[in-house]
Specification:
Blueprint (H helix, E strand, L loop, with lengths): L6 H7 L4 E6 L6 H8 L4 E5 L7 H11 L5 E5 L5 H9 L4 E4 L5 H10 L24 H11 L1 E6 L2 H5 L1 H5 L6 E5 H7 L9 H17 L2 E5 L4 H9 L2 E8 H17 L7
Parallel strand pairs: 1-2, 1-8, 2-3, 3-4, 4-5, 5-6, 6-7, 7-8
Length: 264
């Protein structure tokens, strides 16, 4: 079986947006099918905040591979062993939160790629080759080119170090965790605050300088989301299963309760 193409990485390399479907609660193999049916490019399997087991995480990754939706897993900060296990079992990208320095980014980039680019261990026939890879050297080189390494910048320190982080080989996306960033700035939830705009400008400048992609998470209102996309954000978490369900349900319930002859 040929290597599964990381369609999101190809979109980003072509200068397009990659739109992500966040998963916190969905557990079945229908999740990536739903993500594909609704026009998403990648699935954000959140093991930092979601209550996923490694089994559930990897089953979602494997189920996503034939759909064209890129399975991307967010691990807890520092949990690089969990990240490489996810990569061995179907993930095509990893999000690492709370990355503040270039030294941290270098360690992450190395962990997710096979030698000579990194230090990742070969775990046998991987899911992304349908468990039938070519010769190991050929397979490792090809897989290295497909993996997306996404580091989250969620603190003032990270923003100050954005240029150095963006300069790290093997880092593909600098993903601003806007919610946590606002909390650390003392302006929790104020997505349009001048300090947040300054942060997007600084990280965006670093991305453009070093040929990396600017990512946006935690911004869901259309005014601010439009602003940051206009400033160059292209790797976008558009929403999550719970927020989609609540928004859709609110709309439908509002419709029925608003009918002129609705009882009660």
């Amino acid at each position: 079986m040929p290597l599964v193409t990381n369609t999101t990485k190809q979109r980003l390399l072509a200068g397009k947006m990659g739109l992500g479907f966040g998963v916190h609660h969905l557990r079945t193999v229908a999740a990536p099918v739903l993500a594909a049916a609704t026009g998403h490019d990648w699935m954000f399997i959140d093991t930092e905040h979601g209550a996923f087991s490694i089994q559930e995480t990897t089953q979602l990754c494997i189920a996503a591979l034939p759909t064209g939706v890129t399975p991307i897993v967010r691990v807890c900060a520092g949990a690089l062993d969990e990240a490489t296990r996810a990569l061995d079992n179907g993930a095509l990208g990893i999000v690492v939160p709370h990355v503040d320095t270039a030294a941290e980014a270098k360690r992450i980039a190395a962990a997710f790629r096979y030698p000579p680019q990194g230090t990742r261990s070969w775990g046998g026939p991987p899911a992304v080759y349908g468990y039938r890879p070519p010769a190991t050297l050929e397979a490792q080189k090809a897989i290295n080119a497909e993996i997306l390494t996404i580091v989250m910048l969620e603190s003032p320190e990270a923003v100050r170090n954005a240029d150095a982080i963006a300069a790290v080989d093997g880092v593909d996306v600098l993903f601003i965790g806007t919610s946590d960033l606002t909390a650390e700035l003392g302006i929790s939830g104020q997505m349009g605050h001048p300090k947040v705009i300054e942060a997007y400008q600084a990280v965006g400048d670093a991305c453009r300088k070093h040929g990396k992609v600017l990512g946006m998470g935690g911004v869901y209102d259309e005014v601010n989301a439009s602003r940051y996309v206009g400033m160059g954000a292209r790797f976008i978490l558009t929403g999550s299963d719970h927020s989609y369900i609540v928004a859709g349900a609110d709309q439908r319930i509002g419709f029925f309760n608003g009918l002129p002859n609705a009882p009660g």
